[in-house]
Amino acid sequence: QIQLVESGGGSVQAGGSLKLSCAASGLSYSTFHMAWFRQAPGKERVWIALIGRDSSTEYVDSVKGRFTIMRDNPRNTLYLQMNSLKPEDTAMYYCAACYSASECYRGSVPFWGQGTQVTVSS
Predict the structure, then answer these.
(1) What element of type H or E holds 102?
(2) What angle do CA 76, 80, 83 make, to 5 degrees?
(3) What is the pLDDT of residue 47?
(4) pLDDT tens digits, residue range 79-112?
(5) Nearest-angstrom CA–CA distance, 112 and 114
(6) Predicted pLDDT of residue 72
């Protein structure tokens, strides 16, 4: 059974940092493209960072330069280092595993985590 379990969310003041983790099991982790999505209240879930099988990375403009996506293949773990957090980063953050990058971009994700809440206060 494939499982993605996020952790590391919490409440932080603007300007602070958090590091999210996503532990994957039941899948050949190194063969998947991995991504982080987020969903703010009343808004759609959108991808914000992707790391390919080759560890190439892409980010949406709103997090570029502040967030870093990383993968540890031997530990089957995905990370998101978030710095210089802003109130508009407040959202539920989800880990995703995709067979292709385009699946992640389209939001057609075959495997989701349950999410971890990040709240940034001003």
Answers:
(1) helix 101-106
(2) 155
(3) 96
(4) 999 999 999 999 999 999 999 999 999 999 999 9
(5) 7
(6) 97
26-36: burial string, b at 16+ Cβ within 10 Å, e else: ebebeebbbbb
Tokens of 112: 């989701």
pLDDT tens profile 6-65: 999 999 999 999 999 999 999 999 999 999 999 999 999 999 999 999 999 999 999 999
First to last CA, the chain: 40
| Encoded amino acid at 91, one letter | A
The pair of structure tokens assigned to 43 is 């808004």
Residue 6, phi then psi, degrees to nearest 5:
-85, 155
